[in-house]
Design a protein that fits this description.
The structure is a single chain. The chain has one domain: Beta Barrel (Lipocalin), CATH 2.40.128. Helix content is 24%, strand content 38%. Strands 1, 2, 3, 4, 5, 6, 7, 8, 9, 10, 11 and 12 form a twelve-stranded antiparallel beta sheet that branches. The chain is globular.
């Protein structure tokens, strides 16, 4: 057997095995029951009306998380829309999340911004807008991924330190802390300036959303 032919066989072997590994990873993603269970807790229509009625320091907020791009195999993708309950047609935050399961009992949400987001307001109720939102319309927010660790039936975690940049209201970075369990999501978003002083977000704790 010539050295050239032997080298060719080695290359074919490597490519074949890499392909098998890639296919296995995709199949694992598609059939990951733990990831699907996590996504089911996270998706749906949420409101903090009970909290807002009990404490006027908290606004009444609507939070809707809708599965999209069901044919993709690189995670579970969700469209997220957050709005004041009195201005549902003008959401103040729209994002796309990519959910993955990188480690045992650890789940990650990569955060993406949307170009011209108001074009997709109400997407959860409009098939045309859902079709119009394509992958080329989103951009990854580097450093803003949220990692949650499963603790029994609850998932707890957030962003990593000061890695998520923000220029909102004089902020330098933003943090998010999440507690997720069946029918309840507690989300605490805060913005801090370069000195570590909080410049936006609740100072009293997270928003308590009930499904």
């Amino acid at each position: 057997m010539s050295k050239l032919f032997f080298s060719f066989l080695v290359v074919v072997f490597i490519i074949t095995n890499l392909g098998c590994a890639s296919t296995s990873k995709v199949q694992t993603m598609n059939n990951d029951k733990e990831l699907k269970s996590f996504a089911e807790l996270l998706t749906g229509n949420f409101s903090n009306i009970e909290q807002a009625n009990a404490d006027t320091n908290f606004f009444h907020i609507s939070l809707v998380m809708t599965p999209i791009w069901l044919d993709r195999t690189d995670g579970i993708w969700i469209y997220v829309e957050q709005a004041m309950a009195t201005k549902l047609d003008k959401p103040y935050r729209q994002r796309v999340y990519r959910l993955t399961h990188p480690e045992q009992d650890v789940f990650q949400s990569d955060i993406y911004t949307i170009a011209e987001p108001l074009l997709y307001a109400g997407l959860q109720n409009d098939i045309n807008k859902m079709t119009a939102l394509t992958f080329d319309k989103i951009d990854l927010k580097e450093g803003c991924e949220v990692r949650l660790r499963r603790e029994g039936k609850t998932y707890v975690g957030g962003t990593d330190g000061a890695k998520c940049p923000s220029d909102l209201r004089g902020a330098s970075y933003a943090t998010t802390n999440i507690t997720l369990k069946k029918d309840e999501l507690i989300s605490w978003d805060q913005g801090f300036d370069t000195s570590g002083k909080q410049v936006w977000g609740s100072t009293l704790g997270g928003y308590i959303f009930k499904k």
